[in-house]
Amino acid sequence: MDNYTIAKSFSLLSKLMDIHGENSFKSKIYSIAAYKIEQLTVDLQTLSAEKIFSINGIGDAIGNKILQLLDAGKMKDLDELISKTPEGIIEMMKIKGIGPKKIFIIWKEMEIENIGELLYACHENRLALMKGFGKKTQQNVIDSIEFYQQQQGNYLYAQVEQLAYDIEDLLHNLFNTEIIKLTGSFARQSETVDELEFVIGLPEKNILNKISSEKEFELIENTSQYISYKYNEKIKIKFFLADEKTFLQKSFETSGTSEFLDAFNHHLAESKCNIQGSKTEIEIFRESGLQFIPTFLRENSNIINVAKQDKIPGIIEPGDIKGIIHCHSNWSDGSNTLQELSNACVEKGYEYLVISDHSKSAYYAQGLNEEQIKAQHDLVNELNNKLKPFKIFKSIESDILNDGSLDYSNDVLSTFDLVITSIHSNLKMNEEKAMMRLLRAIENPYTTILGHMTGRLLLSRKGYPIDHIKIIDACAANNVVVEINAHPKRLDMSWRWLEYALSKNVLISIDPDSHSIKEFDNTKYGVLVAQKGMVTAKNNLSSFSLIEFEKFLQIKKRK
After folding, report:
1. Contact, 478 vs 472, CB < 8 A?
2. pLDDT at 151 over 70
3. Long-range residue pairs from 9-12, CB within 8 A, at least 24 positions apart, any chain
4. Which residue in 181, 225, 348, 459 has a CA-CA distance of 20 to 30 Å to 373?
């Protein structure tokens, strides 16, 4: 327990007191004590209690805490504060640009408890709305969090997408060969990725020699099967070794999960098929007597049975999206005006926009009250007259309140063309509470789409526990659409439940949850998730043409 460690404990105590809004005078004293202890030239652990108390600036309170640390290696007041502080809040202290007093606002006023939630709130422009922050501070916080997360080794698919293709191009140029292929979890379009994997059909010596000249690559491991590097001190890069003869086999073996490969090999043994002479993946599946299985579907054993029956459908593509559903404007926490959002939709070839700002309980996001709703609807009418045949639909992302009711009276809800319902508050629930809230919202006759079903934030927040089957069954019974929230940090509902939803004839809606024009592009990541669940354009609401979408809403309202 050297002076630096003791000083660090007092500094942490001071910061935690500020975060908890405790006595600021005491907090400052502990901060000063931390500074003085760190400056001491004599080691406190070598001194008697009497000599410690005689040091200038160390009174009884500080001295007694120093003795606690020296005797027991801990401090009672500090331990009590740590026990009352969520782990995510303590981790937040590592983010440059947000001190204890700002963390207090983030935690207590915004009800955010970890850096993942904070980053998401920044992308929604919520931090900039808080007193003492602003857009510049918000951007600094975004930059600091993203830098911090990059050091942790796990990434969202969207975070590494461009890097994956850039490295693929680099390898093609470096080795002057086409026998290089992206594989593994990235090729399967996994929501999160901890390494980028490639198959290279070149001798190990060639790879090591060429890569050694690239300063961004740091060698981690070299085995008979693969070579691993750390790229730019961040993500892992794995090169599976092959030659021209084994390249196809190695590419196929590394493209699927072990569960998928086991099921595939079992099928081969059972059907006595021979794929040895195959020259492409298309031939591998043809020779095995199976419908072609795209890489993104090579997750589990079930897909083998689907392929045996030739039942893999024509799967949705990004170009199938016809409209932007779930979009926030500057009426709540978005960056752009309705006019700007509409113009961007027209430029991008979309047929309609469903504007769905936050409801009044989302005060932190400037949720709309009843008067603002009427004013926004008047503006929508005005813009629709100007923009024909493009159309803006009146919607709201209505908070599902603690008792499962929605945020407005039925009279107000009836003025919208459609309603998206989502949980944004009191997220720490057991399954019983979460299910009560969701089921009651689904049963509300004005609910059209159930938004981000579990409230999860990838790499940050698990989401509340739910019974997916009961929720999907309830959506089927009440003609409610299930959202795939396409924000790269949400991708909620998970693709793992899409097959069941489709089996119950539940419509999916791939929605960007955009807070700016740029975030329209989130839609693509929702499509990648939908592909893993074998969603077709017919199964997806945002793939409906304007005429089909209007017809859907008319039928929904009649029911």
Report:
1. no
2. no
3. 9/34, 9/69, 9/75, 9/78, 10/34, 10/37, 10/62, 10/65, 12/78
4. 348
Stretch 73-77: mean pLDDT, rounded?
91
181 has a pLDDT exceeding 70:
yes
Phi, psi of 230 (to 5 degrees): -105, 130
CB-CB contact of 256 with 296 (8 Å): no
Tens digit of pLDDT for each residue in 186-208?
999 999 999 999 999 999 999 99
Q: What are the CA-CA distances from residue 554 to residues 238, 282, 418, 448 (Å)?
A: 52, 44, 10, 12
Residue bearing tokens 């938004």? 451
Measured distance CA(438)–CA(450) in Å, rounded: 8
505: its two tokens: 């004839």
User: d(Cα 112, Cα 116) in Å, to the nearest integer?
Assistant: 9
List, in order, residues 6 or more apart from 136 with CB less than 8 Å away.
none
Q: What is the DSSP string of 431-463?
A: HHHHHHHHHHHHHSTT--EE-STT--BTTTB--
Is the peptide bond preceding residue 100 cis, with omega within 30 degrees of 0? no
**Contacting residues for 69 by C-beta, under 8 A, at least 6 apart:** 1, 5, 6, 9, 75
Structure letter (DSSP) for residue 517: S
- Cα-based distances in Å from 505 to 251, 326, 554: 36, 22, 19
Q: What letter would DSSP give residue 176?
A: T
Predicted confidence at residue 123, as pLDDT, reads: 87
Contact yes or no for 172/178 (Cβ under 8 A) = yes
Determine contact, residues 250/179, Cβ cutoff 8 Å.
Answer: no
Segment 442-489, tens digit of pLDDT: 999 999 999 999 999 998 788 999 999 999 999 999 999 999 999 999
For residue 242, is it left (φ>0), alpha (ψ between -120 and 50) or beta?
beta
Using DSSP's 3-state secondary structure scheme, residue 199 falls into strand
Q: Is there a contact between 203 and 209 (Cβ–Cβ < 8 Å)?
A: no
Paired sense of beta strands 352-358 and 391-399, if any = parallel
Under a CB-based contact definition with an 8 Å cutoff, are residues 431 and 467 in contact? yes
**H-helix segments, 444-545:** 468-477, 498-503, 523-532
